[in-house]
Amino acid sequence: MRRIILFSLVAATSSAIAAAQIPRMNPGFEVRTFAGAYVPTGRQADDFKAATTLGAALAREFGEHVHLVGSLSWTHGHNKFAKLDDDRTYIWQYDAGVEINALRELESGWLFRPLAGLGAGARTYDYVATNVGTNTCTAAYANIGSEFQRNLVAVRVDGRYYLNCFKSPISGAERTRHDLGFSLGLVYHIR
Q1: What tens digit of pLDDT does each residue of 25-35 get?
Q2: pTM for the complete prediction?
Q3: By C-alpha distance, which of 111, 114, 23, 27 is closest to 68?
């Protein structure tokens, strides 16, 4: 994981040097939609199965290289708790963060934007099982990805590492857990 982050930061820095030659764009807002996969790791994989995630985000560009991002996602999850009468668990993730990106012009008017970011928020586990309530806990993330932009539309790939607290619906014990999120989406730039 450290090598991936280091590689991304080196790529972003080297691309920033080339960015001085690219015509300046007016900063604005971005609307992002995405679909992807929730991949539990470590102890989280003992309690949950991999699942599909859908979400949306709103970003504010501050210049060409910095974004403030707010996002909301929903995962149609399934838990592995034998004592529950229904394994469905809807996982809601909501957070805000900062992204930095480089900007490199490619052929035919395409822009390549490698990026890295950090953020924090909360996660809600909504259990469908009888007599089990929802619980919400804090979460933080680090992400790396890229956008391939042409005019006002971009295709985005993103990977996130989440660190969050988790409260067991069986014992009530709180633990720190981690998991991964991978997504592919579309971005519309509003100027």
Answers
A1: 567 899 999 99
A2: 0.83
A3: 27
